[in-house]
Design a protein that fits this description.
homodimer; Urease, subunit C, domain 1; 2 domains; 7-stranded mixed β-sheet; 35% helix
Chain lengths: 420, 420
């Protein structure tokens, strides 16, 4: 039995909008699974080693539920362009370079380490179309202690120069890739890029594979109005975008759909009824002027909403920054909605970036007993303060701003994967 | 004659939306004033020492034209509150603590050093109501090499507990403060907090002092709809908010007005006609859900628009972050305007954060000959890249994201005030 005891100010998002705070408490895990949070160290652990972080904040680490690994080298570039132009000018040419396995190894090694250092311990990630680079990505994530899912991207139409597969290649490469996915913590996910990139034949086959192998699915939905028009032309038989996925068996309670910016009442109902996961990527939507997803409305309607950095549409990997981006976007949405919808509180946005994703991984929100331990330890600020701050106040500020090197340690599946 | 020669990729915002880039060039200053930018080192300087930054970016440093120094300790706090509640809960109690001169010294010493380290070399800044703390702030800025203006805040109504002056105190303290302002690079500025905080008598007297001593003026205008209602009640004789300043001689071409979020056609015309400066504080407006200032429209109409971090409504001092916030806000504005207004490009927003403020300080945009040298040197990224990037591409990315420690040096008035 391997015991891990972390001491500090323990903070978790047990419910949407509700923090559970245990000041100077003990977070205990056995064999990587959480046993509980304790105000006093239980007698049975009196002899055990305690990792004592003093007055630091010990909080849940993050789940980044939508990001594009091969766009990592172009972070922060082309931010003046709308989605479809940006894809052709920057995105496809950059992703095409991941045919080069040495380059992929270098970029992905760094990406995986940076995720760990920033406290992202769970991901659902798009790779490129390349089988070998996708396996390299999975291996690098596994080695860095990151957990979750990765998908080899499928796209057999509307790609860029040197960046498109034939339908047959796309399917056969996917099958070969799946045969070689033997990682402990990183699993495969079926990943049609989005409807404009995938022929009907390819979509059909991907739906079949997902069903046969019982795999989760990720793609994009209703990000941008130009995209909606394109999908409408490609699928005149479908009343709405989501139906292009549903038609081919790619629409169920293990499907992640990034964006959902323009999902109206009917589409949101389809998302909710199927148990599909809406991945809100606020920073990306801001950068590419896609719009502001109706997050508050989706949450109220009972849609599963989680967060994604969506790099490189998003310009930062740090989920702290993506959480504040979600708050900001909800404030813009409030103004667009004529002050009728509430913005996200810090507690609520933190929940979306952590606990909201737990059920996707078969777990409960917060530091619930039985969950795998995913946590980070944060030192806060040395700014002069006019009075002692509560742990809640320190937490709120830490979400908005941290000093360089503030993250002292990150734990994933009960293992320390980063320390300063 | 003191000569400074900086070598690197020289980037400046010579015109709104136009960068001037000299790759591997020389930026030369004599006695703190820019001589010129040269592709080859002029023969007369062949014997001079060159500060060679290799392939780094050498760009204009920033002007932060609106920020509240005594709100520095509360950065990132209370971001879930609307303006007026936030003022009473966090702002006024925090500012009140600057009665304590030791505390003021500690906080302002750190603030001044942080400004320098982040590449902000020019400021127009609100202090608190306290004379001594305001002098301490000016001294700390001067010592850190920051230049610009600071104002002791005046407020004789609607303040907080222990944070308000009588009209007489406010005036006499202002006079005493002005008598002691003898700093080389930090000058005083008349600073009525905003109309709701200042009685008519106080406003009148401040207008008189500004005129008599030929001082610039800073205040707030049309930030928030609740504030507009309040001003309307206090000044039933004024058709619009700006007239409450104009009435008392506080409205001219050396007046800075922060926010202007809700300034309509008529108010914007009054701003333009008087040559008043509109300080756009995008991050603060986002955080406090104030709204989105019509920046593009103001610029098109010929209003002087500059940028402010507005800490602690804004959550970051770094003007890099406030420049991207301005871009983001202009994108939100585009959506609010039904896609009819253009968002700010990176070049345009960089201009607003640098060159746009130059005429306020009696200078020309960009690295114009005769300007005082205000510059920063930035190393960019070690991210693997799929191809060599142009200096313009590197600049665009650097505005969005920098690595910790990326700023290698900062120069203000020709002196190196920060180096790594």
């Amino acid at each position: 039995m391997e015991t891990l005891i972390i001491k500090g100010n323990i903070i978790s998002a047990a419910e949407f909008g509700e923090l559970e705070i245990t000041e100077n408490g003990y977070l205990i895990a056995e064999n990587g699974k959480i046993k509980g949070i304790y105000q006093e160290l239980p007698r049975e652990y009196e002899e055990s080693k305690v990792e004592d972080y003093g007055d630091a904040l010990v909080m849940q680490s993050f789940a980044d539920m939508h990001l594009h690994a091969p766009q990592y080298p172009m972070l922060g570039m082309g931010m003046d362009m709308p989605l479809l132009e940006w894809l052709n000018t920057y995105t496809f040419p950059t992703e095409a370079c991941f045919k080069d396995q040495d380059f992929a190894r270098r970029a992905y090694h760094r990406l995986a380490r940076e995720l760990a250092a920033k406290g992202t311990t769970r991901v659902c990630m798009f790779s490129s179309i390349h089988r070998e680079a996708t396996l390299i990505l999975m291996e690098e994530l596994e080695n860095a202690g990151i957990t979750g899912y990765v998908g080899k991207v499928n796209m057999d139409r509307n790609g860029g120069v040197n960046y498109q597969e034939t339908t047959e290649e796309s399917i056969s490469e996917t099958v070969k890739w799946l045969e070689r996915c033997n990682f402990e913590h990183i699993k495969p996910m079926i990943t049609p890029r989005f409807t404009p990139s995938c022929s009907n034949e390819l979509m059909q086959e991907l739906g079949r594979i997902a069903k046969e192998k019982n795999l989760p699915i990720q793609s994009h939905l209703s990000e941008n109005t130009g995209e909606l028009d394109m999908v409408k032309k490609l699928h005149p038989d479908c009343a709405q975008y989501w139906e292009t996925y549903q038609k081919y068996g790619l629409w169920n309670d293990r499907t992640l759909m990034a964006h959902c910016v323009w999902s109206d009442d009917r589409e949101r109902k389809a998302i909710k009824d199927a148990g599909v996961w809406a991945v809100h990527c606020a920073a990306s939507n801001e950068n590419l002027v896609s719009g502001y997803a109706p997050v508050r409305v989706m949450v109220n309607e009972g849609v599963n909403v989680v967060l994604g950095s969506d790099i490189a549409g998003g310009d930062h990997l740090s989920m702290f920054k993506n959480i504040t981006a979600a708050i900001r976007a909800s404030k813009a949405r409030r103004i667009l909605d004529d002050w009728k919808t509430e913005f996200l509180s810090v507690e609520e946005a933190f929940y979306l970036g952590t606990s909201a994703a737990a059920p996707f991984f078969g777990e409960k929100p917060g530091f619930a007993p039985g969950n795998a331990l995913h946590a980070l330890v944060l030192e806060d600020f040395s700014l002069p303060s006019v009075r002692p701050l509560s742990v809640r106040e320190r937490f709120g500020r830490a979400i908005y701003r941290r000093e360089h090197g503030g993250i002292r340690a990150v734990y994933s599946e009960g293992k320390k994967i980063f320390s300063k």
